[in-house]
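Annex B.
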Amino acid sequence: MCNRASISHLTMSAAALTLVVGLLLYAEPAGAEACSVQLHPSSVVLRYGGSASANCTVSEGHLGIGWEASEGSVALVTGVQLITWRVENLTDWHIEPKCYENFMNGTEFEQCEEALQVTLYKTPDSVSISSVDHTGPMVEGRQYQLQCEVQNIAPVQNLTVKWYRGETEITEAEGNPTPKVTWYKDQSEVKSSTPLTRKDSGQYFLTARNSLGSSNCTLSLTVGYAPEFSCNYSYEVTEKQSYTLNCTAEGYPAPEVTWWKQGEKVELPAHLDRKHAGLYTLIANNTYGTANHTLVIKVLFPPAEIEQLEDREVDAGSSVQLRCSSWGNPQPNYSWQFQKAPNVEEVAIDGVSLLNISHASVKNQGVYNCSVQNRIGQISRSIRLTVREKDTSPHTPLTVGECPVQLHPSSVVVRYGDSASANCTVSKDHLGIGWEASEGSVDMMKDVQFVTWRVENLTDWHIEPKCYGNFMNGTEQCLEALQVTLYKTPDSVSISSVDHTGPMVEGRQYQLQCEVQNIAPVQNLTVKWYRGESLENETTFNSNTKTPMTVSSTLTITPSEADDGAQYSCVAELELGPEGPQPPPEVTSEPLKITVHYGPSIEIIPSPHPVIRGYSVELICNASGHPPPEVKWQRDGQAVRGNGGKLVISNAKEEHAGEYTCTARNSAGSDSVVVQVELKEDYLPIIAGLVALVVVVISIVFIFIYSIYYKNTKMGHYSLKSCKQSGQNGNVAQNGRDSSLPMKKLTQPNV
Ligand SMILES: *[C@@H]1O[C@H](CO)[C@@H](O)[C@H](O)[C@H]1NC(C)=O
Ligand SMILES: *[C@@H]1O[C@H](CO)[C@@H](O)[C@H](O)[C@H]1NC(C)=O
Ligand SMILES: *[C@@H]1O[C@H](CO)[C@@H](O)[C@H](O)[C@H]1NC(C)=O
Ligand SMILES: *[C@@H]1O[C@H](CO)[C@@H](O)[C@H](O)[C@H]1NC(C)=O
Ligand SMILES: *[C@@H]1O[C@H](CO)[C@@H](O)[C@H](O)[C@H]1NC(C)=O
Ligand SMILES: *[C@@H]1O[C@H](CO)[C@@H](O)[C@H](O)[C@H]1NC(C)=O
Ligand SMILES: *[C@@H]1O[C@H](CO)[C@@H](O)[C@H](O)[C@H]1NC(C)=O
Ligand SMILES: *[C@@H]1O[C@H](CO)[C@@H](O)[C@H](O)[C@H]1NC(C)=O
Ligand SMILES: *[C@@H]1O[C@H](CO)[C@@H](O)[C@H](O)[C@H]1NC(C)=O
Ligand SMILES: *[C@@H]1O[C@H](CO)[C@@H](O)[C@H](O)[C@H]1NC(C)=O
Ligand SMILES: *[C@@H]1O[C@H](CO)[C@@H](O)[C@H](O)[C@H]1NC(C)=O
Ligand SMILES: *[C@H]1O[C@H](CO)[C@@H](O)[C@H](O)[C@H]1NC(C)=O
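Ig-like domain-containing protein: predicted structure tokens.
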């Protein structure tokens, strides 16, 4: 029923959207007739089934005119100059009406004709679009063909098929004849060189149009692409509750997502357990690719049952620790409820809460409640603490090793002659307490809480005060000794060298001694040796003596040249621990400056030692050494007169050449250096003479050449005339200054 008028191919690719299409009306050029037939209009365009008409005019003198046509023909008529061709319902696609004229050319009968150009057109019955050999979504980057079918159109050569993407006309096209094609989408033109992406999915418009009508069709296009995750790194899920993870994998077609945990494929249940916590990898694939995403699932759960917290019964005075321990996610917080008391301390360590009760008493007796909570839940537990009253009766016997006597402080550090004190308390009813000591003793006292030992001027090096308590109707006693450290800083600290006076000699061994006088206790003494600011050695002393002692420390040194002038010192330091004075007392000796003697070492300047005949030279023998060495020059064993280390040879001759020895000697040693003095001829005057001669010769030659040149050029030009003129002056060389006369001659040489 419908004939295919045109098929347009749309080639979709990463590179372009292309199209093949189109026809245009054409008009055959009218033949050049000599006859007078003229058509008005010369061509008609009409819709199929419409009406059309045209006039044919000729000039006078014809033998008849008429219309020849499949419809609307007009038979030959004479005597008129205009005839009309008319059709009311034009349906002949091939109609070609012709107007003809008969006339005489001289004696010849002739006929000529003119054809009317009729363009009959019809708009398409339908325009439809489809994709060629493909159904379903397209893949990003691949090439596809879309086909647009335009049914029952005429004339096809004037048809233009336009492709649209959305509202956007698609412009690039291929075909023969080259069609004008534009794709539109979303009212903007599509750059056909841009590859299709998933964003290009959508409605595409195709419009088929000829000059008098249009029809369009639409196409839905879907672009496929590889999966992509849109997920967080970390998720929190509450145990045993339903959950959703806002984690999606997008792609077309919809990707298949698998979950992996520790290399195994897993499926997450509807309710998670704490064992489901951990690191997961999600892998999504579809036909176009694979993507993965790693995420952490934290499973939150409320605090677990409190463990290790039970009812307790303790003795008064003992220490108790209550422990409240649970676990949950997130880590829970602990809080205690109990009868507050100053001897109770709350300590949080490692996700556990401890309640430390020191010297528990009846006041601490009661209910202790520990409550544990996190944002998921809360749990608590109550226990009862019972404090047993201790039997404090003085008549109960002491248990083995028990001594209820306590000293505060338990040890003292006191400077010799200073005051000291300590308290003694008893944690049990007693029958009397007191201090036994060489100084500051306290007689036994009953019905007291404590007794104090005090000395204003402690000078007994061996003092060892003891506090005693009597119990069990006087038959049992126990003692606690106070540790007393009596110290004294040294009277003096001095440094000296052992068995040696005066300067030291390089390389030998010496001993330095540091004497610390009258120090106590010597076991806490450290003697530090310093060379300048740097610590060289430390000595400690092993002795239990409590009384002051004089001790010494020795340092062995092997001085070198660099030690000359070094200062040694020693420091006596008493380290008495945290109870002792801070910083630890220290006494420093006067510094000992050592003098080091060392043997000479020679350097001769200059080196080497050539002597030029007739010249003088100074040889300097530099000798270092301590004490400063005596320097002597010798030649062949004979002393040569020299001014200390300086040897002067003046007006050198053969006799001065030879071997010279410089010897340096001091108390620490000697050194000598032999110098070979060579005599060299002095070529300088000869060279200087030759140079002077060459200069003189060159100068003479130059002056000679210059004078010739001068005569030939500068003077010659204007002097030959002026020469005669100035001949009166008799002075040729004067021409420059004497310019008034010759200059005029020069500018007017013929005058
Ligand atoms: C032909 O001529 C007639 C008479 O002059 C005029 O009425 C008519 O409109 C013309 N038709 C065309 C198609 O020119
Ligand atoms: C025109 O001609 C065709 C075929 O001859 C016919 O089917 C149609 O009805 C006609 N139309 C009119 C308006 O006369
Ligand atoms: C008339 O006839 C002559 C000779 O036969 C020829 O050359 C000329 O072209 C003709 N004229 C027309 C108008 O046909
Ligand atoms: C396509 O056709 C519809 C209805 O015939 C019309 O509303 C629309 O404007 C046309 N689109 C184009 C791009 O021509
Ligand atoms: C998931 O939800 C959380 C909280 O509502 C939000 O911060 C996060 O951006 C979302 N993640 C994704 C991938 O949508
Ligand atoms: C995804 O990958 C798995 C295993 O590699 C395969 O079995 C499955 O068919 C793939 N799915 C798609 C949609 O390609
Ligand atoms: C996840 O993707 C990365 C890069 O895209 C790849 O190196 C890795 O092997 C993938 N992991 C899995 C388990 O597929
Ligand atoms: C001994 O106890 C008394 C009274 O409590 C106190 O004032 C004193 O400072 C204590 N002395 C020592 C050394 O602790
Ligand atoms: C401390 O006692 C010593 C010896 O008994 C005495 O020499 C010294 O003067 C006394 N110091 C004071 C301050 O009483
Ligand atoms: C000590 O006292 C207890 C009880 O008061 C008594 O039984 C015991 O005989 C007494 N011991 C002595 C030696 O008095
Ligand atoms: C002092 O010396 C004693 C005995 O050698 C020792 O026990 C104590 O730790 C020393 N104190 C310091 C602070 O070194
Ligand atoms: C129709 O097509 C013909 C042939 O290609 C051409 O000459 C003519 O100009 C066209 N007509 C229109 C209106 O484009």
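The pocket of 2-acetamido-2-deoxy-beta-D-glucopyranose (ligand 6) is lined by residues 256, 285-287 (CB under 6 Å). The first strand starts at residue 4 and ends at 12. Further annotation is deferred to the next reporting cycle.
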